[in-house]
Amino acid sequence: MSHLVELAVDEMRTALAPATDRDWDVPAGRLEWSCRETVAHVADDLFSYASQVIAEPADSYLPIEAVIDPHATNADSLLAVAMCGRLLRIAVDSAPPDARGWHPHGTSDPDGFAAMGVVEVLVHTHDVTTGLGLEWWPPSALSAPVLRRLFPLAPSGDAATVLLHVTGRRALVGHELPTSWSWDSSVRVAD
């Protein structure tokens, strides 16, 4: 699962590179955050997930966060996301398979944290591209494995569309758009 983190970050960088000269202080889709704040949030999530994998806290997040300098360029903000994505991949790849770290939606293993990172990157890239008026859609090849890992009860359909649906961004035909959502990051016991 860890290699998907860098693939998702590459998607984000490719999608947003054409707009690095634009104003990112506009809303990111339907979020209350600006595009700039949303990109900073992604960097912090990736950093925090790496921290949880490395430190293995049992009952809380570590009291540390990644902050992007408010004067950073948009391109530098994307570099920060890339660094945090690599950090998560390194943490996941070097962790023992029985490593566990706390998350409010279920104590997770390294692959679970990688999957959470991929979801954050993909859905927030969608938010930012929407806010900037860019055409972009999450790749189904990246969406499908994170749906299986974090959203086992998700409806069937195109994985990218389903991912946007379960995260409250796009309604699926025949399904009401969720007004609140969460994933299940707990470790599943094999049958």
UniProtKB/TrEMBL annotation:
It comes from the Bacteria. It holds the Pfam family MDMPI_N. Residues 7-128 form the Mycothiol-dependent maleylpyruvate isomerase metal-binding domain. Keywords: Isomerase. SUPFAM superfamilies: DinB/YfiT-like putative metalloenzymes. InterPro entries: DinB/YfiT-like, MDMPI_metal-binding. GO terms for molecular function: isomerase activity. This is Maleylpyruvate isomerase N-terminal domain-containing protein.
